[in-house]
Structure formats: C-alpha cells, structure tokens
Amino acid sequence: MAHETPETLTDRTATVLQAARAWLNQDPDPETQAQLRALINAVGDGDTAALSNLHSRFDTRLAFGTAGLRGEISAGPNRMNRVLVSQAAAGLATYLLRHAAPGVTPSVVIGYDGRKNSHVFATDTAALMAGAGVRAILLPRLLPTPVLAFAVRHLDASCGVMVTASHNPPNDNGYKVYLGGVNNGAQIVSPDDKAISDEILRVAADEHVPHLPRASYETAEETVVQAYIAETASIAHTPRAQVNSVYTAMHGVGWDTTRRVLEKSGFDLPTLVDAQIAPDAAFPTVAFPNPEEPGAMDLAYETAREVSAELIIANDPDADRLAVAIPDLSSASGYRRLSGNEVGAILGWRAAALATADASNPGALACSIVSSPALHAVADAYGLRFVETLTGFKWVSRVPGLVYGFEEALGYLVNPDSVRDKDGISAAVALLSLVSDLKSEGTTLAGYLDRFSEKFGHYASGQISMRVSEVSTIALVMTRLRESPPTHVGRIRVDEIDDFRWGLGDLPPSDVLRIRLTDGSRVMVRPSGTEPKLKVYIDTRSTVGTLVERRAAAQAALDELDRGMRALIE
C-alpha cells in the first residue's frame, strides 16, 4: 500500500477512520479505547500496518450465529469487546420482548467463567437486559457452562447467556445463547439465530451504546448451584470401590463445582494438578487450554505417575468437556488419553444398560454425524432408537426422548433431564461411577474397552485436519470431490457417497460428504465451522476373529483410508 498522509487519505481509508472514531466515542473500556486511539493516530502518521489492522477490525463484523459470538478481545466490531457485547445484549433483549407471550415479562439468566472480561461482559449484559425490560438474573459467581445450561431450565428462564470461549486461546472470549420454553434450554438454532442477529445489527446501526438504558438486576441465590450439584450427584450410586484418580481443571472453573459433586456422590477426592486447578485467564502452563492438544495433559500425566493413579479426569476451562486418560505401559508418559469416540461409546453402553427400553416408545441414543458409529451398535443391541445429528450439541440435545448423546470432540450428555448441553462434570461422575463398579469386579476401564470390542466389534477412528492459508482452497477441494467422486480411497472401493449439501433424510443442509466403503468403513469430509481447516473423520470396524485380530484389521483399514484421503485432498 502506498504511503498516505492525512491530506491524501483514500476514500476507503477515510471510511475506516470514520468508523473507528465513531466506535471510540461509544467504547466504555479504557483498555480498548487506548488501543484504538493509538491505531487511529498511527494511521494519521502514515503507518500502513496500523491501517491494515484497522481494516481487519472494521471491514467486517463478528457474525452472531448458532454458536453465538466468539473471538479475540480487542477493539472493533470484528473483535470481542464491551461495545459488541452491549449491542448483542440489547439486540437479544429486543428479540425476547418481541417473542414473549402477551403480558409476560421475558427473563434471562447469565453465567460467566474465569476468562478475561467474562465478568464485565456478564454484568454489562445483565444491566442492559434489565434496562430493556427483561428480568435479568446473574449467577452468583464464576461457574461452569453446564451450571448455566441447568439454570435456564431450573429457573424456567426464557433465555440463558454464557460468557465463555470454552477452550479457545487465552485472549478470546465468547457469548453462547440458550433458549427456554419449547427449546427446553438448548442452544439456539436457525431461524432464531438469524432473528437475534437482525436485532443486534439494528442496534449497532441505530443506537449509541452509552445511551442504551441500564437498570439493576438480580443475583441468583446459591440454591441454583446447590440444585445442580444435587441433580448431578444423583446420577451415580454409592461407590462400590474408591478410585485413585487425578483431576485437572486446565486453569478453568470446573474444580469447585466438581469437588462438591464428588463429595455429595461419596467419591474420594482426586489428587489435583495443583498448577492448573485455580481459574487463571492467562492459562500459564498450557500453550492451548484444550485437553485434546498435544502437551496439555503433560502435568496431569506427571501427577498421575507420582501417585500411581488409576484414572485421569480433565475438564476444559468452562467444564463442558471431559478428557479421560488411563494407565498404558506402552506410552512414554505411562498414560493414554482415550479418544472422544472411545469415551462416548463406553458411556453410551453404560447409559443403554441403565435405560429401561419401552418397546412402544424407546429412548434414543444420539451422536453427531462425524462421531463413531459404535453408538449405533449399542442402540441396536439394547432396543433403543439411534439418531444422528449435525455437528454441535445444539442439535444433539434436541433429539426427542434422548437418553444419552455425545460428539467426538470430548462432549457428553449423560443427564438430559437436567441439562440440554454437553456437561463435563456429570460425564466425569458417570465415568467415575463406571470405573468404581469395574474395580469392585476386579477389572479396569481398559478391560471394559476390550469387552466392548468383543461384544460390539472393534471400532477405530482417526482424523485429518488440513489447515489452509486461503479459505477458498476448502471450497475447491469440496467441489473436486463432488464433481469427480473417488471410486477408491486408497485400495478400498467406494460403495456410495452421500452429499448433505441439500439436506439428507431428516437432517438440514450442511456442507458435508459421507463416503461409504465396501468394507463397512466410513469417511466424513467437512469444512471446520470455526477455523480455516478441512476436517476428515475416518471410522473403521472389525467384528471377525479374536480381539487382537479385530484391532489389527480395524487399524489396517484406518491406516489405508488415512493415506488414501490425504492423497485425495492435499
């Protein structure tokens, strides 16, 4: 870009500067004010990097969708900040008022985690909601996302807002929205996301944040948290054997609530990964606060080795996900983290065994289309319905008659009568209860996985994640696969390819391809919903021979399909 002076600014530069100054005039946050003021001054001095930075912040806007809002905390409409959150709160309030029954005051319950600005975003939301005429209830302190999801139903609220970015990088934050009433406390889906987004955009265009009315709001009693703890503890019976476990909160908000649930359930408390147990918005011991990421569990493995733990339990920072690791002498760390599909399958088996199948209206096991087909085999064996949904618990949680649901990205719903979202705390209790029962019988979770493979077949799963510098590359790969469909993946012949582009069965349209192979394997291909990545999910199964033979056959097919898909997409 050519050097520009204040006298020779292009129209585009003048436009972005005007937008930045207008934003600055309504920003209540001294930190983002200073940041934006410095950028504006730098552009005035001819700094082309600062100009590019401004365009990145102001040429577009963080889109409000079914996942709400999520992004880096910084100034501008394409970042998370107090202006954007205020506009979102005011727009959501208008939506709730427009959709309330005549004479009914809508209500919202608001939760927040320990991330940077979570508390201020939550209190801004509560004050602005109250100012708009919505009954606003703030949870009493920083708490896990599942407690907020529970509170929407427990308080019979019209809506819930959770301020969290889950396991995103430290400087991110987000805004998740749940709806009560006919939505039963599930996350928003279409068309509600579009209707809320339209109201937010209207506020952004017509209103000045400092002029938006604010009012006092309620703070929920601790009884809401106590009710969540009681209901979550009730999913486990009195332990038949105590388990020597290790727990990490990954610098998040999970431990206090988890501790109280375990105490009420009768479990001995785990050994803690002390450096990661207290909420810390800087996440100092992990490069990325996601238990799926390499290195994130290293301190947990170290602690587990010190106490010879039988089990490691990890929550992500807002405790809606659960990671599990078990002893493994073949691993350098001495432990192996189970995949989301492995945990999903064994918790599904537990849920099915506990469920009473009504032949006239059987309950349902559900998972996302990219999760392991192992759950289907469990449902068939126990006379339960099996339902596949699009990716995301906003879909899984809405399945009628749901007994249990999961998705491969460490999300599990074991208590759908209480919470309509993934819940890493209740899943931890269910898992601990299972391991306790197994220990009383003289076996382990590793042994239970073997039993699963003997009963249902051995399932293996893998994933390819192709990061691209240009998002258009993903569309080109998807188009190529559609226009020139492969006849083989590696040496395995393709049976059929299902295209979800226009919807498939009961599923709404989605940019997903399902490749079915003659050996019974399955490959799913889809763009990531949150990152510039193309994601490929591979699932294989073997039901023939001994356990060792089944494992070998499923792994061989997985390796072949991995090589074949890399050749097709790279």
Walk me through this protein's architecture:
With 570 residues, the chain is an alpha/beta fold. The protein has helices spanning 11-24, 30-44, 48-58, 82-99, 118-132, 145-154, 192-206, 223-233, 254-265, 298-307, 340-354, 374-382, 393-396, 424-440, 445-456, 472-483, 547-569, and strands at residues 69-72, 107-112, 135-138, 159-163, 172-179, 186-187, 218-219, 245-248, 271-272, 311-315, 322-327, 335-337, 364-368, 385-389, 402-407, 411-413, 458-467, 488-489, 492-499, 513-517, 522-527, 533-542. The strands form four sheets. Strands 1, 2, 3, 4, 5, 6 and 7 form a seven-stranded mixed sheet that branches. The chain has a six-stranded antiparallel sheet with strand order 17-22-21-20-19-18. The two termini are 33 Å apart. The mean pLDDT is 95.
Helix tally equals 17
Number of strands: 22
Distance from N terminus to C terminus (CA atoms, Å) equals: 33 Å
Radius of gyration: 25 Å
Structural class: alpha/beta
Shape: globular
Average pLDDT level? 95
Helical content band: 25-40%
Beta-strand content: 15-25%
What characterizes the major β-sheet?
Answer: 7 strands, mixed
Query: Which stretches of 5+ consecutive residues score pLDDT under 50?
Result: none
